[in-house]
Hints:
By secondary structure, this protein is an alpha/beta fold.
Amino acid sequence: MPDTPFAPVILGNEPGSFPHSVLAERHPAIIRQVRDAFPYGPGQHEALDELLHSCTEGTVEPLPAGAPDGDRWLAWGLAGHAGRSWYDVPWLWSESYFYRRLLEAVGWFGPGSWQGIDPFRPFKRAELDASETDEELAALDALQKLPEEERARALLHGSLWGNRADLGFRLSAEGAGDREPAPALVADDSETLWSLLPPAGNGTLVLVADNAGRELVPDLLLIAHLLAEGRAARAVLHVKPYPYYVSDATTADVVDALHRLRTAPGAAGAYGRALWAAMADGRLTVRTHPFWCAPLPYSAMPDDLRAEFAAATLTVVKGDLNYRRLVGDRLWPPTTAFRRTTAYFPGPVAALRTLKSDVITGLSAATESALVAAEGQRWRTGGTHALIQVDPSGEQQGQ
Ligand SMILES: O=P(O)(O)OC[C@@]1(O)O[C@H](CO)[C@@H](O)[C@@H]1O
């Protein structure tokens, strides 16, 4: 990520900034929570102590010799960052590497009996099993009486605001889950989004998921609706290859969410059964890719993903981190055109995101001034505002 004077890459080295607080406070809190949630042995405790020291006071260290993804991390910039403070390398890079090292500390990569044990699973499960999830699912019954367009809109907004369900965010934003969201979107290209997914279309929707539980459930409901109404003939759901940013969805989380839906009463159960059938006949596919946990912007995506997005009717990327990677993790002037930052993307792309970090593009000058007048800069990170932005054009000539 080379720096440009126009939009500097975000680092975590400015005390008082949001990125700094994530490195200095959120990461240690995550280590504490994971440590408390499992009966780990002395080797894991020692590795967690070492990680805590390294990420707060030490430097980025290389991966152990023989790490299965060692070459991949070298290609992703590890050699250039090793030996430097975690605060002085791009923030996106530090965060991704933190989750990679945390999984290693608890034995996720094996070999051994802790291989594949998700350290965030208790938190994700608790959310999926919460009574709030029952209430959200019960609300689907009333939706069935509405005309299709209204149902589609409600489910799109359910998926969008589901992005507030981010467990990592709640760790460092006290009371964030209870704060009322601001209803008006700071940018709303939903008409363009619907024009790309007309009823009786024959397209492929790709949805790049973000969080499990109370975000993934409404994502799945949206997919179920689009398939049932013929707005998409096929859907591909991309999830993370390993646990990441606390609540990011993996295939195991998709299975949990589908079980939860299928066994729910009323309309939710019907959606669940329809999704189950769509998995069986191939209209809904779950995929993953190592690049989803890469510390890089999407402009650096590999050719196989590029080809998949080029062939899709629409790719929807969910959440704050995906937004940062889509537009580049930079301090853009907020009125920078969204399409300017996504011109490299190989097909039509939409971002559904609640605002939980400093990165923002595509605001009108009037919207930016109104937000600043009301909240200073808090609107960028508070998780109470949301946007739907669409670039329908696909890769532009000369990019
Ligand atoms: O991608 P999500 O789940 O919407 O949000 C991820 C997040 O909580 O984590 C990052 C900071 O650690 C920020 O991008 C954001 O605050």
